[in-house]
Write a structure and sequence with these properties.
It is found in: Nucleus. The chain is mainly alpha-helical. It has eleven helices and three strands, in the order ααααααβαβαβααα. The chain folds into three domains: 43 residues, Arc Repressor Mutant, subunit A (Orthogonal Bundle); 48 residues, Arc Repressor Mutant, subunit A; 97 residues, no CATH class. Strand 1, helix 7 and strand 2 form a beta-alpha-beta unit. The structure holds a DNA duplex (21 and 21 nucleotides).
Length: 245
DNA sequence: AACTAGCTCAACCGCCTGCTC
DNA sequence: AGAGCAGGCGGTTGAGCTAGT
């Protein structure tokens, strides 16, 4: 089993830095034919490069709409804010920075902003996290890879939280859960109804977003009550914006 | 002038996801 | 349903450059 490597090292392919001729061939070919299939493009264009390499070169360097040069203060500010919100989702971040490439933003972050970011914002303890270890995600970073919840509800249940499971499919339909909030929000604990509040987020905020199953960094449980206090509604709306067309 | 450390950025690598058959 | 494939993504590497000693 296992997939065939895209550009096996045995093949007679050019590697390393692109030369001007290669750039020209690639750019000319794409200008005429577009970039249909990257895997067959090098062969058709007459390039001794693998498709992935061609794609990368086009996306990060040859594309006509690329804005090169210094990143402005506004862009930098946006990068910081988006990174705070999204973590290392460079493709999403770059979607809000027209003309920039994910590679450029990633490099800029790693060389300019990472150190400053960790100084400015102690909440961002780690700049990287992986899906396989969601506990490593910064606590205020929305994990955008989480699947869309079909029923976006805010479920507050002090006594009978729905069962949590590691099953990814079950997680997909798991309602957004805020443990223990009801007892803070409503001191009348005798009222069982008040302890089981279901809110449609669209009716409680101006955002129409779908909520994600957040996990607490430390114990893999849903967020504590402080989550609501810490949570920045501006970021909720920004997240919503990012996921809109 | 020579050396070194740090920085920048293009390119590569390997994994993941979605699509097709 | 599941295997294979292509595209996309994020992390990492390494060559070239610059500033400091």
């Amino acid at each position: 089993m296992g997939r065939k490597p895209c550009c096996s090292k045995g093949e007679d392919l050019n590697r390393g830095a692109w030369i001007a001729d290669e750039d020209k061939i690639l750019a000319d070919y794409i200008r005429v034919h577009g970039h249909g299939k990257w895997s067959t493009l090098p062969q058709k264009a007459g390039l001794k490069r693998c498709g992935k390499s061609c794609r990368l070169r086009w996306m990060n360097y040859l594309r006509p709409d690329i804005k090169r040069g210094n990143i402005s203060e506004d862009e930098e500010d946006l990068i910081i804010r988006l990174h705070k919100l999204l973590g290392n989702r460079w493709s999403l971040i770059v979607g809000r920075l027209p003309g920039r490439t994910d590679n450029e933003i990633k490099n800029y972050w790693n060389s300019h902003l990472r150190k400053r970011g960790s100084k400015d914002d102690h909440n961002i303890k780690r700049s990287t996290f992986s899906e396989s270890s969601p506990a490593a995600a910064p606590p205020n970073v929305i994990r955008t890879k989480a699947t869309k919840i079909s029923k976006p509800v805010l479920f507050i249940n002090n006594n009978n939280p729905p069962p949590l499971t590691n099953d990814a499919n079950a997680e997909e339909s798991r309602p957004f859960l805020v443990d223990n909030v009801a007892s803070k929000a409503n001191t009348n604990d005798d009222d069982s109804i008040s302890n089981n509040i279901i809110m449609q987020p669209a009716t409680t905020t101006s955002c129409s977003g779908s909520f994600l199953p957040f996990l607490n960094e430390d114990d893999d449980k849903p967020f504590s009550p402080s989550f609501l206090l810490d949570y920045d509604i501006e970021n909720v709306c920004l997240y919503d914006l990012l996921n809109s067309d």
